[in-house]
Write a structure and sequence with these properties.
Shape: elongated
Helix content: 10-25%
Strand content: 25-35%
Largest sheet: 8 strands, antiparallel
Structural class: mainly beta
Distance between the termini: 66 Å
Number of strands: 41
Length: about 725
């Protein structure tokens, strides 16, 4: 029996529990730089997964590195040997090869030699057998750079050659003899065909599997196989599968569990319009905790290790004893043509549903409409939304949008889905259905929206704006809504000045003949104060600026009211952006540019002269309840500049609206055009949509009765 020990004094973390408990992660891909990168993500994964308690072992199911180079293994070792990355003890770290680890011509050699610290200085084994607390464990390395029976059978043979199959047979026979009536835990990178999500090409549009292991595993229904490779998210119920026919030609009569990913997620091709990498796919890392229960069953808990959140805590997967196949309950409708025993098949029912009274909302542009779809509910997960667009009864297009269920606690309450390539000034009927992983569809919600005309004045009136043409340049044309105050830095603190003169701000010529602007010195800024005193996560800011120096750092927006952090948006080296989202476009010196900033529920977008440049996400761009600074930075990274216009909307304008505004004159006299509604929606004070049926009688405008008390609904 091969025993591997991690060279870290884990005993400092406390006592081990008596019952078996182990963790499983996969696809760490060291030196893959998606998002924060493998070092940050794996460190967080280890810390969050071990926060659940001590583990007898942690299995890493292949694709340890991105290319199999020795320096990538060095980074892996530095993370796994760092005791700061563990909140509780892990007795054994067990590794195996995946296809990415074989990308280097020396992949196998680098694996064996680089991982010697994990095997008492000896070459790290390709395959292992061990017994932990009376349970047998088998690991198999993949020895090829790809594995796809359908397109290239030879690649599957290379990945799992005859000697690997012989090893598996030997280990399974040993496990059956040494540990009778116990489940056998098997770990390998590639899923067996016709098992978990990602191994059915006919249903999922791709095949991440191998049939090489099926004939052997099919003899052992007590096998519980853990596989990586697909990166498919654990919130999908298809990630666990048990066969329904021991004599099936598919040879899938055992349990297979997908392990998610520790670096970035994917979904199957063809499911949604954007492809296999939907929005925020780099912010998904996952893992499993597998535990022995008092009754002898095996419990599998799924974890979002990015957010330290258990996935489906009310629906944990249970592998029931006896482990002979008689208690299998995770077959599904993919097996419906091969079910002679008449097993109950999971079909995802009931279908997803929208709460009563759910309606669509939209943001209209000239050639696009952004649908705002409130998320539906499902017993497992809402996988995607189908949108049919018709015009005068004719089907124009059908689109599919990912629900982002893999974000778990960060899954948005409302999904923003952009329908583009539409005609201007046209009515379209939208029918939206929610689908689960088995394509069960909800009842539709239907509503008509219109695109805007191509006139440039088809946008809402700014909530507050300053054009600096009056005798009092900082006077807001909607004074009851906001104030713009001059500020300067004194002994490191922001000080509000009583006048422009006191702050050193003075009038200059504007963009057009007869227009005015203001000149703002490098040690001075402006503060926008919103009278309602509420933070803003949805807004649009447009500023017309001219810089004398576009090479040096110049802060444009600062959301920290203490001004103790870097500003949130800079111009630097003739580009605009910030470190974590990059710098884009071109900002010339001594020329006017119209810069637009749009925050849509945490998605921050930058435009220059009407053209979209970049997007980022996070909480740093939320406008504070106290307001927002312009042209301030904690280290005074600022240059002298001129400002000809500043406009603020408490809503996010669309891409088309920003493009229409371009760098022309903004009409501040138009009224906001609102679509008449035949139904209405209600929100609580946090901005979350609610069901009016949760409340009692309406006693006054916006006031309802709940549990005998008046409740204000905005």
């Amino acid at each position: 029996m091969v025993l591997l020990y991690l060279c870290v004094p884990f005993s400092m973390f406390g006592q081990k529990t008596a019952k078996l408990s182990f963790g499983v992660i996969s696809d760490t891909h060291f030196e893959n730089h998606a998002g924060e990168g493998a070092i940050v993500k794996t460190s967080r994964t280890l810390k969050n997964l071990t926060s659940t308690g001590s583990l007898d072992a942690l299995f890493v199911v292949g694709d340890l590195t991105n290319y199999g180079y020795s320096d990538q293994y060095e980074k892996l070792i530095s993370v796994f040997e760092d005791s700061n990355n563990y909140q509780n003890s892990v007795d054994d770290i067990v590794l195996m090869l995946g296809n990415h680890d074989m990308f280097s011509v020396d992949g196998k050699k680098n694996y064996e030699e680089s991982l010697r610290p994990f095997n008492n200085g000896e070459d790290y084994p390709l395959h292992t057998y061990r017994v932990i607390k009376g349970y047998p464990f088998i690991t198999l390395s993949q020895l090829g750079v790809s594995c796809n029976d359908t397109s290239n059978p030879n690649s599957s043979i290379e990945s799992y050659p005859p000697e690997t199959l012989d090893t598996l047979e030997t280990y399974l026979e040993r496990a059956t003899s040494q540990c009778p009536n116990k489940p056998i835990f098997v770990f390998t990178h590639v899923p067996p065909q016709y098992t978990c999500y990602g191994s059915w090409a006919e249903f999922e549009g791709d095949d991440w599997s191998t049939s090489r292991l099926n004939p052997i595993l099919n003899k052992y229904p007590q096998c519980i196989v853990f596989c990586g490779h697909t990166h498919y998210p654990l919130g999908d119920p298809r990630c666990i599968h048990q066969g329904v026919n021991p004599n099936s030609p598919r040879e899938n009569y055992y349990t297979v569990v997908g392990t998610g990913t520790s670096t970035y997620s994917e979904i199957n091709p063809g499911a949604v319009d954007v492809g296999i990498h939907p929005k925020y796919f780099v912010r998904v890392t996952e893992g499993l905790i597998v535990s022995e229960q008092d009754n002898g069953n095996i419990e599998i808990r799924r974890y979002d290790t990015y957010r330290n959140h258990e996935i489906g805590n009310n629906n944990r997967w249970i592998i029931k004893a006896p482990f002979d196949g008689s208690m299998f309950e995770y077959g599904d409708i993919r097996d419906r043509d091969d079910n002679p025993l008449g097993r109950i098949l999971r079909n995802g029912a009931p279908a997803p549903s929208f709460p009563n009274g759910t309606v669509l909302d939209a943001e209209s542009g000239v050639n696009e409409i952004k649908l705002l779809i409130p998320q539906a509910k499902d017993n497992d997960c809402v996988f995607r939304y189908g949108v049919k667009i018709t015009k005068e009864g004719q089907l124009i297009a059908e689109r599919f949008f990912f629900s982002q269920f893999y974000l778990n606690a960060d899954m948005p309450d409302t999904l923003v889905c952009t329908i583009d390539s539409l005609n201007a000034n046209t009515n379209y009927l939208f029918e939206v259905k929610a689908y689960d992983s088995y394509d069960n569809a909800s009842h539709p919600i239907v509503e008509m929206f219109s695109t805007l005309s191509e006139l440039s004045d088809e946008y809402p009136k700014p909530y507050a704006y300053w054009t600096f043409d009056s005798d009092n340049p900082l006077y807001s044309c909607q004074k009851d809504y906001a104030d713009l105050l001059p500020v300067s830095i004194e002994s490191g603190e922001v000080v509000i000045r009583s006048s422009m003169d006191q702050a050193g701000i003075f009038p200059v010529a504007g963009i057009h003949a007869g227009d005015k602007a203001i000149s703002i010195p490098h040690d001075t800024g402006l503060k926008l104060v919103l009278d309602d005193g509420k933070a803003k996560n949805n807004y649009t800011i447009i500023m017309d600026i001219k810089q004398r120096d576009a090479e040096s750092f110049n802060a444009l927006i600062q959301t920290s009211m203490s001004n103790l952090d870097d500003a949130d948006i800079f111009v630097s080296n003739h580009q605009i952006g910030v470190a974590e989202m990059g710098y884009y476009g071109y900002i010339s010196e001594n020329e006017w540019h119209r810069i637009a900033f749009v925050n849509r529920d945490g998605n921050f977008n930058i435009y220059v002269d009407g053209d979209f440049l970049a997007t980022g996400a996070g909480s740093r761009w939320v406008v504070d309840a106290e307001g927002v600074y312009f042209f301030l930075d904690d280290s005074n990274e600022r240059v002298d500049m001129e400002l000809a216009g500043l406009y603020f909307w408490e809503i996010p304008l669309s891409d088309c609206q920003i493009k229409n505004l371009g760098n022309g004159v903004i009409n501040t006299d138009i009224n906001r055009v609102q679509r008449p509604r035949t139904s209405f929606r209600m929100y609580d004070l946090s901005g979350k949509m609610i069901d009016k049926n949760d409340y009692g009688a309406k006693v006054a405008e916006g006031i309802y009765i709940k549990e005998g008390k008046k409740v204000l609904i905005k």
